[in-house]
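Quick one, tokens below:
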């Protein structure tokens, strides 16, 4: 059966339109910004100032407690963490972000937490969201982080480069971080130093790590 050139042309045109629509839909999904992340990014810096200062004050209190050998029992809020990320992260000499990553924010819930950031590359910019489950591991002073899902905009993805960037950022910040063997880089292990020196050496033992709605509660025994 012979096909006329017009019919052949319309078939090609239809295929091209479908491919274009598919590409535009994927582009729409990748460029979408999750609603909660967009809301966090709209908060003006002036609103972040007080929560960020509260977090800095808490850090000072923790240093004093460690110095005097007092056990730690602190509650840190999502607002305080995001306030610090929004106002204190850029230019911080102790913490650095990988190239092309900006505006990190975290939403704390129970049982999962969500980390957001904007990924900028030469050809695209996308809001990345990573759903995590964070808990104390069986080993002392060890935290287990399980990556549940990864999205670029609204599109589920698995990008090796993102995992490489996470690993690189942890290494530059001096964090004892590694992927748990046999998990295909979906579970990370972070070891917290057991000895801290403030005037004198103190041994730390994390006894409780509890994530609640918009806050995290930490208890540490000091020796």
């Amino acid at each position: 059966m012979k096909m006329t050139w017009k019919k052949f042309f319309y078939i090609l045109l239809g295929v091209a339109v479908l491919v274009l629509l598919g590409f535009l839909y994927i582009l729409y999904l990748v460029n979408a910004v999750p609603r909660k992340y967009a809301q966090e990014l709209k908060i003006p810096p002036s609103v972040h100032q007080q929560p960020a200062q509260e977090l800095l004050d808490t850090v000072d209190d923790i240093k004093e407690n460690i110095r005097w050998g007092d056990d730690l029992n602190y509650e840190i809020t999502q607002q305080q963490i995001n306030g610090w990320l929004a106002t204190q992260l850029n230019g911080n000499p102790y913490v650095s972000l990988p190239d092309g990553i900006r505006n990190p924010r975290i939403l704390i819930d129970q049982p999962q937490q969500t980390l957001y950031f904007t990924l900028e590359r030469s050809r695209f910019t996308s809001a990345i969201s990573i759903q995590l489950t964070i808990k104390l591991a069986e080993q002392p002073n060890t935290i287990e982080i399980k990556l549940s899902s990864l999205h670029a905009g609204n599109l589920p993805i698995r990008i090796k480069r993102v995992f490489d960037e996470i690993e690189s950022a942890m290494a530059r910040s001096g964090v004892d971080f590694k992927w748990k063997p046999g998990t295909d880089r979906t579970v990370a292990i972070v070891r917290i130093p057991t000895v801290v020196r403030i005037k004198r050496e103190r041994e730390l033992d994390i006894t409780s790590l509890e994530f609640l709605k918009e806050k995290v509660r930490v208890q540490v025994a000091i020796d």
